[in-house]
Amino acid sequence: MASFEEMKKCYNIFMGRAAYDDVYDCLRAMWARQDHKLTYPLVQEFRSVLKYVSGQGSLLKKTYLLTAKDVFDDFMIYIEWNRPLADQFWLPRRKKLLPVAQALQELEDDELDELILSMPPRVGKTTLILFFTLWIILRDSERSNLYCSYTDSVVDVFYKGLLEILNDPVTYLWQDVFPGQSIASTNAKDKLLNIDREKRYASFTGRSLYGTLNGACDCRGYEIADDLISGIEEAMNKDRLQSAWSKVENNYLPRGVGDKIKHLWIGTRWSLVDPTGLRVDLLTNEPDFKNIRWKMVNVPALDENDESNFDYAFGRGFTTEDYHQRRTSFERNNDMASWSAQYMGEPIERDGAVFSPDDMRFFNGVLPDGDPDRIFMTVDPAWGGGDFVASPICVRFDKDIYVVDVVYDNGDKKVTQPLIVDKAIRYNVAAMRVEATKMTAEYADGIDEELKRRGHRVNVEKSTKHYTGNGKAQRIFDKAPDIREHFIFLEPGKRSKDYEMFMNNVYSFSINGKNKNDDAPDSLAMAADYGLGGGNTMTIMQRPF
User: Fold this and answer.
1) What is the dihedral of CA 446, 452, 454, 459, to 10 degrees?
2) What is the phi/psi pair of residue 248, to 5°?
3) How many angstroms separate the CA atoms of 225 and 279, rounded?
4) What string of H, E and C letters represents the secondary structure of 287-352?
5) Which residues pair with 262 in a beta bridge?
6) CA 295 to CA 292: how far, in whole Å?
7) Which segment of 17-31, 85-99, 309-323 scores lowest on mean pLDDT?
8) Comparing C-alpha atoms, which of 208, 181, 205, 177 is closest to residue 193?
9) Bridge partners for 375 per DSSP
10) What are the pLDDT digits (tens) for 29-67?
């Protein structure tokens, strides 16, 4: 197959309108032969040329119409083509939500059997799923699809949203993509929608989890679960969580028929034992589920740089400042568990949380007068790849330990070792303990060598004690009383981004296990052992002999 560069030469597309049309006709013929994976990159490259050529807007639009039936992203772009950009749903959000759309494409292309989507409230996830549902029922109107949420009111809004788009083919150009298709029947009471013809089991059926699911639908397409838990009150009630899972197991999942059924789970991850959490546990740990192709996409409110993932164009979405203010509010109200669950997609069990802002001590950045007894650091090392290097910089006055700064970074050693050395020099650190297993001894050596090279003398001690799994969790739990009593942290508003993320990791630690990472609380447990376990002191006293 010719490359696009060869196609440009062959058709001389810069020489006139007819040549552009010839390239499009060639691509259309290739697409009609179902060579989509080979043809689509050529279509994309052709678009990249058309976008910079005046007078080719209509041809560019035709390239999206060509692929919209088979490519969800292109469908979204095309059907809103005539709307003012500021009024569109997709393009202002596309840069941020494209990974979600691509995961949905994998599901429809049968590269996945099951997809789990987790995003914060009010960022457009349900609207995106509404457009996806529209696309799949138009692609194959004979498939019966079931949409389920925690209450009838949510299902009703979703159902009306589908009808709003289908009844307005001028604003939303879906009829261009699927010509000849139309609404065959609707039933507002039972939330039924049929495309092309009326069927026993509708193209779309909407039901609440606690509604009449039995007999509602033999689902042969998608089962879409959108927020099966109503909120924090239900999430904190173990009986309600168990009831919700029982409904999922006995009423919802059995509606799916055949081995081609697709499962889509969307919503806020309130708890490790909410329906989505229990489903993830099955998919992860049960051998009988090992052949299911599944994927989780979690897009948190704040990225690894503590900046918003949902700051959309035209002032849509939420800025970094919006989310920082929201997080501070949760922290002040002693509810970091809800922040972690709703906004970061990291559910933790409230009855297993070890640290909370209400139990911690804080200072405004001003240290007590006089010289400290000791300035030290502890380092929980990592090599990158998702794990964080965590290191509090501790200044001790008597039995109070002020955490004046931290290193908290998931970069590789070329990034994190210089950060540790910089902080050690800046705060005149005299002693440092680095956890040093066979794997991480080299990390400690690298810090020591860099300190010596820069002429700063620090007593770098390698700790051969290494804790993993339950042992690490137990050490953190054992040291938690000392951390709460003796450690004093910078108050909100005085912290760097790294410090803020460090504290959030501390608050998210749960003794019930399944912590995504526990690097920050583990480094504090090290600091409690190192800083409160003694240290060199000198006392002047009368000679005893």
Assistant:
1) 90
2) -65, -50
3) 12
4) HHHCCCCEEEEECCCECCCCCECCECHHHCECCHHHHHHHHHHHHHCCCHHHHHHHHHCCCCCHHH
5) 222
6) 10
7) 17-31
8) 205
9) 395
10) 999 988 888 899 999 999 988 887 777 788 999 999 999
Distance CA 211, CA 223 (A): 15
User: b/e string for 273-308 if b means 16 or more Cβ within 10 A?
Assistant: bbbbbbbbeebeeeeeeeeeebebbebbbbeeebeb
d(CA 143, CA 137): 7
* C-alpha torsion angle, residues 349, 350, 354, 357 (rounded to 10): 130
Report which DSSP code applies to 370: S
Question: By the 8 A CB rule, do 81 and 173 touch?
Answer: yes
Give me the residue label for tokens 């708890």. 271
Task: List CB contacts of 212: < 8 A, sequence separation 6 or more.
Answer: none
Residue 444 · residue 377 · CB < 8 Å: no
pLDDT digits (tens, 9 = 90+) for 326-361: 998 888 776 787 888 889 988 866 667 788 887 899
In angstroms, rounded to a whole number, what is the distance separating the alpha carbons of residues 229 and 245?
10
Asked if residues 489 and 520 have their Cβ atoms less than 8 Å apart, the reply is no
Number of alpha carbons in the 13 Å side-chain half-sphere of residue 153: 1
- pTM for the full predicted model: 0.72
- Phi and psi torsions of 393, nearest 5°: -95, 115
E strand map for 58-139: 114-118
Amino acid at site 47? R
Q: How far apart are CA 354 and CA 367, in angstroms?
A: 27
CB neighbours of 120 closer than 8 A, spacing ≥ 6? 268, 300, 301, 310, 318, 342, 343, 345
Q: Which domains does the chain have, with CATH numbers?
A: 4-68 (no CATH), 93-315 (3.40.50), 351-532 (3.30.420.240)
Query: In a 3-state reduction of DSSP, which class is residue 377?
Result: strand
